[in-house]
Amino acid sequence: MDLLIIGGTRFVGRHLVEAALARGDRVTLFNRGQSVSPLAPQPAGVTLLRGDRQGDLSAIAEGRWDAVIDCCAYLPADADRMARCLANRVGRYALISSVSAYASAALPNAEDAALGQIDDTDTTVVDGRTYGPLKALCEAAVVKHMGPARSLLIRPGLVVGPYDPTQRFTWWPARLARAAVDGLPVLAPGDAKRPLQFIDARDLAAFVLLALETGASGAFNAAAPPGFTTMGNLLQACADAAGAAPWLHWMADADLLAQGVRPWIDLPLWLPADGEQAAFMAVRTDRALELGLKVRPLADTVAATLAWWRALPPEAQLFNLAGLSAEREAGLLSSSGSFS
Ligand SMILES: NC(=O)c1ccc[n+]([C@@H]2O[C@H](COP(=O)([O-])OP(=O)(O)OC[C@H]3O[C@@H](n4cnc5c(N)ncnc54)[C@H](OP(=O)(O)O)[C@@H]3O)[C@@H](O)[C@H]2O)c1
C-alpha cells in the first residue's frame, strides 16, 4: 500500500512505520518535525513531509495515497480539516481513536455502545473530561468527509510496549527490575486476580495495516481479549523478565485510596474494582479478533519493554509522569505495617 501517516514519529505511529516498511508498503509521513529524537531516529526509506495539521497543509495539498493513518487527531476541527483536505485523494482513512470515546467505562463496551458527549464541542482543552468525547467527534468528522465505507475507526485500549512515552506500563517492568537489584518489597495494587487488558503497540500496528488491506470499515476496539491477563500475572511476568523473586505486598483498593494513592497514575494500570472506570480494561474485542487481530504473549511485551527501557540513557529512564517515588512507596508499605 501507499500510506500517508499523520504523525508517525513517537509511539503508535513509529510502530506503524516499522510494520509498514517491513511489509513493503511505501510510507510518507506528515508532521512538524518536533517529536523526532536522536534516541529514535526515523527509519530509512520514508518520505518526510513537513507541516502542521493546525497550520500549513501545503505539503499534502497534492498527492494520492491508498490510505491515510491519522495518529494525532485530538480536536474535531483538526480531524475535519485533515479529512476534508484528503477525502478525494486517499482511498481510506484510518483514525486512531480510543476506547475512551465511549460514554461510560463502568460496563464492558462493544463498538455499538453509546459514545461520550460534551456541551463545549469546540473546546481546545484536551483533558480527562474532554479527551474521549472529542475523539468521538473526530470519528464523526472523518466519517462525514470519507463516508462510512472508507472510514476505519480504531479504538485502542491502553497501548503498551517499546517507545511508550507515557511511562505507565513501562513502570512495572522497571519496578520489578529494581526489586531484582535491591530486594525490597514491592507495593502491588488491588487484587492479584483483577483482569487487565491492553494492546502491544506492535500488535496494534499490524492490526491497523491488516484492517486497511482487507478493506474493513467502521469501528474496532483494538485490545487483547477481555481477561487476557491479571495484575498478578503481569507482576509475575515482570519479575520473571528481570530475574526477581520479589515480596509482593498487596494493598486493597480502599487502603490505597485512603492514603491518597491515585489510580492509573501513581500505580499504573490499577483501577479500583467498583469505580467509574471498572470496565475500562474489559472492552469487547470480538470484531477485531474475527478480522484477524493477533495478540502476542505477555512475556514478549514485558521483555521488549524492559529491554527498550534499559537501553534508554539514565535521564530518560526516570519516572516523572507515572509511578510512585521509592520514598512514597516505602512510606505506604511502612504505614501499612508491612515494611520498615
Ligand atoms: N497511549 C495510549 O495508551 C493510547 C490509547 C488509546 C489511543 N491512543 C491514541 O493513539 C495515538 C497515539 O499517538 P502517538 O503519540 O503514539 O502517535 P505518533 O504518530 O507516534 O506520535 C504523534 C505524532 O503526531 C505528530 N504531531 C503532533 N502534533 C502535530 C501537528 N499539529 N501537526 C502535524 N503532526 C503533529 C508528532 O510529530 P511532531 O511533534 O514532530 O509534529 C508525532 O509524529 C493518539 O491518537 C492517541 O489518542 C493512545
Describe this structure in words.
There is one protein chain. The chain is α/β, with parallel strands linked by helices. It folds into 2 domains: 2-156, Rossmann fold (3-Layer(aba) Sandwich); 161-197 and 226-277 and 297-335, Alpha-Beta Complex (UDP-galactose 4-epimerase, domain 1), CATH 3.90.25.10. It has helices spanning 12-23, 76-86, 131-146, 168-182, 201-213, 231-242, 253-258, 286-291, 298-311, 326-335, and strands at 2-6, 26-31, 46-50, 65-70, 90-96, 151-156, 159-160, 186-189, 195-196, 199-200, 218-222, 229-230, 248-251. The strands form 4 sheets. Strands 3-2-1-4-5-6-11 form a 7-stranded parallel beta sheet, sandwiched between helices. A two-stranded parallel sheet has the order 7-10. It has a two-stranded parallel ribbon with strand order 8-13. The protein binds NADP nicotinamide-adenine-dinucleotide phosphate. NADP nicotinamide-adenine-dinucleotide phosphate binds next to α1. NADP nicotinamide-adenine-dinucleotide phosphate (NAP) is lined by residues 7-14, 31-35, 52-54, 71-72, 96, 98, 156, 158-159, 166.
